[in-house]
C-alpha cells in the first residue's frame, strides 16, 4: 500500500516539503490542504505589491518560469493533490486521521495519514485595544488583505495611514504607502527606536533620520490606547500623548505561531514561545508528525535560548529538510542566528546574531564597536557609506552579532550573510578581523568593513584607546563641561562651525599636525578627539598616550554617525 502523507499548510514550508518528498519517493501519495484559496505565494513580497513595484498579485504566485502555483499546478507538475479552502479542524493521532471541513460546502470529512506535516504558519498579533475590529484596520497577513488595501488606495479612499509598529513590516509598509501613493504616513513605535532588538541605537538613529527625510512621521515611546471610529470606520488612533487622524490602520505588531491544532492533538507545544516543539529532524513529540516554518520553536545558536522566527527563507529550508526525512533521509536543522535584511526607501538594513542591547539582556559580558567607510573602494565613483557594528563578548572576544546600514545595494546583505554563516561556529574577533573576503574596487575595499570594525573592536579590547559614547560627547558640550576639551583633527572647514559654536572648547589641530602641537593641548583636561570615522582620532590618541596623556577619549563611530542622526537637529 502506498504511504500517504498529508501536509497542512500550503504557503512556504508545506509546498516545499510536499514537493520534495514526492520527488524522492514518487510512489507516495501526497495530499496538501489549506484553508485559503491563494496558496504558495511570496508573502514577503506583499509590501512591494502594495507599493506598485509588483503590479499584479499573481506575480507573487508565479514560478520563476511564469507558471501559476495553484491546485492544478501542484497536481500536474508536482504530483501533489491539493485541497484549498479546506480547514483542518482536528488531528486524531490514535486513528491517524485529520478531520477537515470544506469551507465552500460546509461538508466535513477525514483524511487518513501515515505521516503528517504541520506547516500552519503564524497569525498577526493584534493589540487588545478598543476599535481593532473597525473597518479600515488591517494586519498585512495574507494576499487578501493586501489586495483590499491596494484597492482602497487605488480608489482614492486613503489619505492618511497610521502604522502601529516600526519593525520590518511596519517600515516596509510605510515605504509602500509613501513612495507610490504619496499618502500621509505616521508610524507609532512602543519602544524608543525603529527596529527594536534588531538594531542598536547608533544604527537605528540613521534609519529614524532617513524616515524623517522621506516625510514619514515616526513617533517613538508611543503607547496606543484605542482606535477611534465613526459609523463603523476608523478615523483616528489614540495614544497616551496624542490623536492621529487616519483612514487606514496597519497593525504591524508581530505574529504568533499557529500551534492550536497541535496543542489540541496533544503534541508538545512550548509554554514560553507558543511554538510547536520539534527535534533536529523537525519531528514533533509524535515521530509520525513533522512541523516546520513559522509555527515551530527553534534554537537561537548564539544565546542558546528557544525562539520562534517568522521567515520565508527559514520555512523553505524547513520544508526541504522535512521532505527529505519523510523519504527516509537524515537531514537535521540545528537552529538559526536570526539573519535579517530589509529595504527602507534608499537604505539597506541588515543584522544577524544578537544586538548589544539583547546580548546584555542575555547576560553576556558584552561590548561593541562602530565603523563607517565607503561601501566600495573609496576612490571608486559613486561609493556610498556603509555603517557597521560588531558585538562581542569581553571574556573571550567571541563575536555575538553584526549589523549594517548602507545604500540600497547588496553590500549590507553580503556582509551580514558572511558573518551570519560563521556565527554558529563561535568565531572570535581575530577570525572576523582577518576573514578572507573578495576584493575589487567596484565591489569592496582592500579591507572590508567587517575586517575594519573587528580590528577596532580588538583595539578596544586591548585597551589601545579609551572609548566615549557620542551621546556623552554632546551631553558634555550641552552642559558646558569645563573639564573637557574637544580636539578636531579633521579639516578646518569641517571644524569651523563647531569652533564658532563652542569657542575655546572646540580646538582645531589637523590630523597630521597633532604630534607637533602637543603643547597646545592642556594636560589638566579630559580630551575628546573628533574625526569623521574615529580612525584619525584613534591615531591621534595613540600619539597623546605616548606623550603621557591619560584622559584621552575617542568617540565610537565618529561624526559620520552624528550627521545621520535625527536628534542632532
Automatic annotation (TrEMBL):
Which SMART domains does the UniProt entry name for this protein? RHOD
Presence of the UniProt keyword Transmembrane helix in the record: no
Is Oxidoreductase set as a keyword in this record? yes
Signal peptide start and end residues? none
Q: Which keywords are on file for this protein?
A: FAD, Flavoprotein, Oxidoreductase, Redox-active center
Q: Which Pfam families match?
A: Pyr_redox_2 (PF07992), Pyr_redox_dim (PF02852), Rhodanese (PF00581)
- Required co-factor? FAD
Question: Where does the record place the Rhodanese domain?
Answer: 480-566
Q: Which residues form a coiled coil?
A: none
Please provide, alphabetically and separated by semicolons, the GO molecular function terms listed in this UniProt record.
oxidoreductase activity
Stated family: Belongs to the class-III pyridine nucleotide-disulfide oxidoreductase family.
| PANTHER family in UniProt | NAD(P)H SULFUR OXIDOREDUCTASE (COA-DEPENDENT), PYRIDINE NUCLEOTIDE-DISULFIDE OXIDOREDUCTASE DOMAIN-CONTAINING
UniProt name for this protein? FAD-dependent pyridine nucleotide-disulfide oxidoreductase
Q: Which organism is it from?
A: Thermodesulfatator indicus (strain DSM 15286 / JCM 11887 / CIR29812)
The organism's taxonomic lineage, starting at the top? Bacteria, Pseudomonadati, Thermodesulfobacteriota, Thermodesulfobacteria, Thermodesulfobacteriales
Amino acid at each position: 500500500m502506498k504511504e500517504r502523507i498529508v501536509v497542512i499548510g500550503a504557503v512556504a514550508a508545506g509546498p516545499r516539503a510536499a514537493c520534495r518528498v514526492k520527488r524522492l519517493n514518487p510512489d507516495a501519495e501526497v495530499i496538501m490542504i489549506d484553508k485559503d484559496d491563494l496558496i504558495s505565494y511570496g508573502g514577503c513580497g506583499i509590501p512591494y505589491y502594495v507599493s506598485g513595484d509588483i503590479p499584479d498579485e499573481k506575480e507573487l504566485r508565479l514560478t520563476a518560469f511564469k507558471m501559476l502555483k495553484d491546485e492544478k499546478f501542484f497536481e500536474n507538475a508536482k504530483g501533489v493533490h491539493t485541497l484549498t479552502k479546506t480547514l483542518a479542524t482536528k488531528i486524531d493521532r490514535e486513528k491517524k486521521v485529520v478531520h477537515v471541513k470544506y469551507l465552500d460546502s460546509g461538508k466535513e470529512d477525514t483524511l487518513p495519514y501515515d505521516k503528517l506535516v504541520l506547516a500552519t504558519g503564524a497569525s498577526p498579533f493584534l493589540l487588545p485595544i478598543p476599535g481593532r475590529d473597525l473597518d479600515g484596520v488591517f494586519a498585512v497577513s495574507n494576499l487578501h488583505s493586501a489586495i483590499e488595501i491596494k484597492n482602497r488606495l487605488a480608489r482614492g479612499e486613503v489619505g492618511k495611514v497610521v502604522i502601529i509598529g516600526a519593525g520590518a513590516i511596519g517600515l516596509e509598509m510605510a515605504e509602500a504607502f509613501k513612495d507610490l501613493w504619496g499618502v500621509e504616513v505616521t508610524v507609532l513605535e512602543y519602544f524608543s527606536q525603529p527596529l527594536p532588538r534588531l538594531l542598536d541605537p547608533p544604527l537605528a538613529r540613521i534609519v529614524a533620520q532617513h524616515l524623517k527625510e522621506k516625510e514619514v512621521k515616526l513617533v517613538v515611546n508611543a503607547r496606543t490606547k484605542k482606535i477611534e471610529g465613526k459609523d463603523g470606520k476608523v478615523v483616528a488612533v489614540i495614544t497616551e500623548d496624542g490623536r492621529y487622524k487616519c483612514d487606514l490602520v496597519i497593525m504591524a505588531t508581530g505574529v504568533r505561531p499557529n500551534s492550536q491544532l497541535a496543542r489540541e492533538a496533544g503534541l508538545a507545544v512550548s509554554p514560553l514561545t507558543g511554538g510547536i516543539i520539534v527535534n533536529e529532524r523537525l519531528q514533533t513529540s509524535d515521530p509520525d508528525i513533522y512541523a516546520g516554518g513559522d509555527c515551530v520553536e527553534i534554537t537561537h545558536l548564539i544565546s542558546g535560548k528557544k525562539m520562534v522566527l517568522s521567515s520565508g527563507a527559514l520555512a523553505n529550508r524547513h520544508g526541504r529538510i522535512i521532505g527529505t526525512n519523510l523519504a527516509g533521509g537524515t537531514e537535521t536543522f540545528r537552529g538559526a542566528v536570526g539573519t535579517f535584511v530589509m529595504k527602507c526607501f534608499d537604505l539597506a538594513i541588515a543584522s544577524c546574531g544578537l544586538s548589544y542591547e539583547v546580548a546584555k539582556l542575555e547576560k553576556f559580558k558584552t561590548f561593541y564597536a562602530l565603523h563607517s567607510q565607503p561601501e566600495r573602494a573609496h576612490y571608486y565613483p559613486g561609493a556610498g557609506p556603509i555603517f557597521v557594528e560588531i558585538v562581542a563578548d569581553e571574556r573571550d572576544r567571541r563575536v555575538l552579532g553584526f549589523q549594517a546600514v548602507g545604500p540600497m545595494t547588496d553590500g549590507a546583505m553580503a556582509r551580514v550573510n558572511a558573518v551570519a554563516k560563521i556565527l554558529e561556529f563561535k568565531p572570535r574577533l581575530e577570525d572576523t578581523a582577518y576573514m578572507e573576503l573578495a576584493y575589487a574596487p567596484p565591489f569592496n575595499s582592500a579591507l572590508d568593513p567587517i575586517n575594519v570594525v573587528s580590528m577596532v573592536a580588538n583595539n578596544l579590547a586591548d585597551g589601545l584607546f579609551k572609548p566615549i559614547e557620542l551621546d556623552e560627547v554632546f551631553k558634555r558640550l550641552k552642559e558646558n563641561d569645563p573639564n573637557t576639551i574637544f580636539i578636531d583633527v579633521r579639516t578646518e572647514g569641517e571644524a569651523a562651525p563647531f569652533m564658532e559654536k563652542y569657542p575655546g572648547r572646540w580646538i582645531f589641530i589637523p590630523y597630521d599636525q597633532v604630534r607637533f602641537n602637543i603643547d597646545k593641548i592642556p594636560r589638566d583636561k579630559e580630551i575628546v578627539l573628533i574625526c569623521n570615522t574615529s580612525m584619525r582620532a584613534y591615531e591621534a590618541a595613540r600619539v597623546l598616550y605616548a606623550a603621557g596623556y591619560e584622559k584621552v577619549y575617542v568617540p565610537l563611530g565618529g561624526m559620520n554617525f552624528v550627521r545621520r542622526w535625527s536628534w542632532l537637529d
